[in-house]
Every structure is written in structure tokens, then in C-alpha cells.
């Protein structure tokens, strides 16, 4: 199952901020998990554990400790850690990850109109497989503009605190939402 199919099965992505949250992931509905923590010595075991739950796992390499900002780190992640893909704000890492055969999700911060234009440019440069827009509670035109730039899945992340925020993100055009609140992981919207 690829990323698009996985988020169609369940549109809420579990975003884990620390290893202790892994136990809470067991038996939940999300088919996709973003790891917003980690370190080089334990990442492979954590990824294996999440995969054993039947979930896809994407490692946020900017937040994981011990990995470099280069192609060698990406090769190590692909061969030794073996996530389904990576998440990063760094355009060069997204582009290199794709060249190394990793599914790559570019995280964009959108605080103003200028950053939407910058985001469009970064997505064209990186050729990301998907994009995570932060905060996830942006106006509809932001998702439309980014989708016009590249027809890729858009994940809304950040500042999503309740079911109303999830519904609003989907109404505005998000393909999926990533949330760290365990109470929202099983939402069916």
C-alpha cells in the first residue's frame, strides 16, 4: 500500500513526539505514523515496532538526533532504519531522499502570503512526494495554490486541537491531517 492509499484508508496521521507514546499507538486506526523524535541508535527498532503494528512510518529527520544533513545519512536511513519515508523542512534533503529511493514529505511553514509563494517554489525544486503544511488551519486558498503547483497529497499539521479543526482542514482541501493528540487518532471524518 502506498502513502496515498494509506491516507485514504484513514485520513488522520498519528504524530508521535516521544518513544513513550508508542504503546498508545497499538490498536489505533491510523495507517500512517510520523515519528517526530528519534536518534540514530534506536530509530531502526522504533520503526520496526511501528511497522509490526501494520502502520506506515515516516521519520522526521530534522528532529531525529545523530543523522547528518547529507546523502550518506539518507542512505543509512534507507538501508538500516528502513522507514516508509522521511519528513523534512530541508529542500536539498527531500530532493536527495527521492534520488535515494525514499518517499519524501516536505514540511512547509506558512505564516503569511509570501511563504505560500516560497512554498510553491520549494516544492518544484524538491519534487517532494507529499507536503505537510503547518499550521494545518490555513485558509482554503493556501491548499489550492500548493496543489496547483504540484498535484501531491497535502497533509495539514499543527494547531489541530479538535474534531472541528480536522473537519475544517478537510473542507479546505487537505488530503490528511497529522495530529499528536491521541484522542483524535481514531476520528472518522
Automatic annotation (TrEMBL):
GO molecular function annotations of the record: RNA binding
InterPro entries from the UniProt entry: Aldolase_TIM, GlpP
Source taxon at top rank: Bacteria
Keywords: Glycerol metabolism, RNA-binding, Transcription, Transcription regulation
Pfam families: G3P_antiterm
Any one of the GO BP annotations: regulation of DNA-templated transcription
Signal peptide: none
Function: Regulates expression of the glpD operon. In the presence of glycerol 3-phosphate (G3P) causes antitermination of transcription of glpD at the inverted repeat of the leader region to enhance its transcription. Binds and stabilizes glpD leader mRNA.
Protein name: Glycerol uptake operon antiterminator regulatory protein
Source organism: Marinithermofilum abyssi
Lineage: Bacteria, Bacillati, Bacillota, Bacilli, Bacillales
